[in-house]
């Protein structure tokens, strides 16, 4: 991600935060229900266990940590996000979780630092790079995990989603091909929200 792309993201996020405050709309989610539906699919697909370590890439306020605890799956949670405003609010609301500034490359954790690395809704913005940044994030996520990664993307098979100039969408088959060379197994689901798919890849060979 270059400096201009980063600034565009930060400006859009800051504007949404000023308009909505602590609300899913500040994270560019349409509703709390949509946000949590994506969380639920990642939980069901990954099977993450209580007490496992989780890195949440693009964590926003860190809502995922409290949501998992309410599902009876408290984890050792670390969240990272570019937006200082979101992290500050998240720190006030969830003082017991670890929240760090930056993207995955700024944070730069060592290989196999976390059991799981998740990402929800973070790679939906069009950066005018053909999806290169998104693919590089997915590869780095896998290097950082011990057990696997779980994430969602917008589905380019949906004509409305693919036609949005401001959104970045992907063919699920393309993302499956990206992970299949270096994972033991992967699974895709696209049955929960229109224009969205989730993928879980479990740790396999070295990348």
From TrEMBL:
Q: Where is the Methyltransferase domain?
A: 55-148
List residues traversing the bilayer.
none
| InterPro entries xrefs | Methyltransf_25, SAM-dependent_MTases_sf
Q: What is this protein called?
A: Methyltransferase domain-containing protein
- The species this protein belongs to is Thiolapillus brandeum
């Amino acid at each position: 991600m270059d400096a201009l792309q980063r600034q565009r993201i930060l400006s859009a996020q800051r504007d949404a935060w000023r308009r909505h405050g602590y609300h899913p709309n500040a994270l560019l989610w349409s509703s709390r229900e949509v946000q949590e539906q994506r969380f639920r699919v990642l939980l069901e697909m990954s099977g993450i266990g209580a007490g496992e370590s989780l890195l949440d890439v693009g964590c926003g306020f860190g809502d995922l940590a409290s949501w998992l605890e309410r599902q009876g799956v408290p984890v050792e949670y670390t969240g990272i996000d570019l937006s200082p405003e979101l992290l500050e609010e998240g720190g006030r609301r969830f003082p017991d979780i670890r929240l760090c500034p930056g993207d995955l490359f700024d944070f730069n954790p060592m290989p196999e630092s976390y059991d799981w690395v998740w990402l929800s809704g973070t790679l939906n913005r069009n950066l005018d790079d053909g999806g290169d940044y998104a693919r590089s994030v997915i590869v780095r996520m896998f290097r950082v995990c011990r057990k696997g990664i779980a994430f969602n993307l917008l589905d380019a098979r949906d004509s409305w989603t693919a036609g949005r100039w401001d959104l970045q969408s992907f063919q699920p088959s393309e993302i499956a091909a990206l992970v299949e060379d270096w994972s033991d197994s992967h699974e895709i689901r696209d049955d929960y929200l229109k224009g969205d798919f989730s993928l879980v890849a479990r740790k396999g060979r070295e990348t």
